[in-house]
């Protein structure tokens, strides 16, 4: 995948030099057209093992994961803020077991950190077999809704980011 990026940079620089204009505008035009060519010839590139997917699609998936995290972070911030300004602090804290579909250590670590960084939730422990997380939620009435929320946002996006599927 890094070779795709280097090819794209190199040909973008060549485009800039062959056009005779040495500025970023011409570099980005060449860079864009090489991205298009890489997309068109991706099947040939994958036969020669130059990556399993295009690097800019991989970068898009990481960006999508970051945006999902930021949106969930904002929603959780608003919920905790509402909770703080309630007249009576009536919360229902709970610790629940979350079954993981992700397998790799970096994925589990990323998911656990994303849960912990989101206000109102905390990853308490990882199961001994790396198949479960124990999550503390500050206020919930529906554990299944919390589990589905994690599965459909964070875990789904982390699975998309993985290069090897």
UniProtKB/TrEMBL annotation:
Gene Ontology CC annotations of this record: plasma membrane
Q: What is its main location?
A: membrane
Superkingdom, taxonomy of origin: Bacteria
What the entry lists under InterPro entries is as follows:
Cation_antiport_E (IPR002758)
Name its cellular compartments: Cell membrane
Keywords (alphabetical) are: Antiport, Cell membrane, Membrane, Transmembrane, Transmembrane helix, Transport
TM stretches of this protein = 5-22, 28-45, 57-74
Q: Which family does it belong to?
A: Belongs to the CPA3 antiporters (TC 2.A.63) subunit E family.
- Spell out the protein name for this chain: Putative Na(+)/H(+) antiporter subunit E1
């Amino acid at each position: 995948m890094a070779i795709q990026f280097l090819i794209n940079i190199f040909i973008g620089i060549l485009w800039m030099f062959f056009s005779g204009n040495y500025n970023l505008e011409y570099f980005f035009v060449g860079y864009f057209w090489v991205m298009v060519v890489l997309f068109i010839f991706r099947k040939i590139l994958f036969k020669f093992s130059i990556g399993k997917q295009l690097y800019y699609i991989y970068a898009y998936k990481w960006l999508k994961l970051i945006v999902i995290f930021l949106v969930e972070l904002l929603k959780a911030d608003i919920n905790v803020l509402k909770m703080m300004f309630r007249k009576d602090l009536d919360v229902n804290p709970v610790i629940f077991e979350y079954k993981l579909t992700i397998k790799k250590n970096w994925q589990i670590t990323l998911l656990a950190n994303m849960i912990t960084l989101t206000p109102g939730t905390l990853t308490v422990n990882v199961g001994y077999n790396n198949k479960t997380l124990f999550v503390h939620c500050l206020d919930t009435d529906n554990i299944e809704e919390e589990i589905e929320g994690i599965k459909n946002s964070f875990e789904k996006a982390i699975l998309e980011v993985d290069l090897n599927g």
